[in-house]
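so ive been stuck on this for like two days lol. basically i have the seq below and the ligand is magnesium ion, smiles is in there too. i just want the complex predicted, nothing fancy, no docking runs or whatever. if the output looks off dont worry ill sanity check it later, just need somthing to start from for the group meeting slides
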Amino acid sequence: MVGHVGPKKDLLQMKGKELDIEHYRLTEEPFYEEVSGEVGLVTIAAENRMPVMLKGPTGCGKTRFVQYMAYRLGRPLITVACHEDLTATDLVGRYLLKGEETVWMDGPLTLGVKHGAIVYLDEIVEARKDTTVIIHPLSDDRRFLPIEKRGQMIEAVDEFMLIISYNPGYQSVLKELKQSTKQRFLAVEFSYPPQEIETRIIEHEAKVSKEMAQQLVKLGGKVRNLRNHGLEEGVSTRLLIYAGSLMQQGVVPERACDAAVTQPITDDPDMQRSIQELVKAIF
Ligand SMILES: Nc1ncnc2c1ncn2[C@@H]1O[C@H](COP(=O)(O)OP(=O)(O)OP(=O)(O)O)[C@@H](O)[C@H]1O
Ligand SMILES: [Mg+2]
């Protein structure tokens, strides 16, 4: 996927090759259905150099939205999937041995700060605490990045934009973002799209008929209601698309929904039976 810091690019970096910012430019417009004014809001944020936080459950369009915004704003997109071993060094850069000499390699954040990219830190709470130290001066009006190892401060160019995501739902209190971090970002809340929009998304992404998409959306609504009866998180748009794709390729509805909806979201046999009943009633 364009604009993603994947294994291939990590490998390039390890080999001491400069990351080329042009690799991070999206060449095709991603399909995105706007839900409630988020495009305009984030465009204003981008123009005013404000960092943005995307909040919301898994599979509801955050990543797709960022890709779409990067394309629309004409800025490269550098995505970093945060995990518990991710350090400030991984983001900022490091010295690498190249033959006899050591050379400095910019990390994804430094690259974005210099070249005016959107840097998307996905699941920021997963990253180590030392990352907040570098994110703070970047996400207030100072907009600079300290590069401790080189004794440098670099100022972000105007087009640089920091976007972070997090899912407040299933994170423990320990993993909550600090107020001093949260209160640096404009927040855009994502949730499951309204029926009509979700229908269009499923139609487009799973290449199914409108009728089929409507049935899946109906199932989605009913399953999401089960959250009041002990289901941890509702079914994502992503999973409904998977179910649609399976059916589109000839898998019978019961089997498709079992594989794409019931089994992925719950291990509880009673809850699974309830969902299977819903599937039977709808298809
Ligand atoms: N508003 C939307 N417009 C177009 N496609 C959408 C939209 N919302 C969701 N989708 C579809 O749903 C899929 C899942 O969305 P996405 O990957 O953006 O979720 P996410 O919020 O980033 O999830 P996670 O938190 O797990 O990373 C997308 O690949 C896309 O097909
Ligand atoms: Mg995502």
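Residues 195-282 form one domain. Residues 62-63, 122 surround magnesium ion (ligand 2) (CB under 6 Å).
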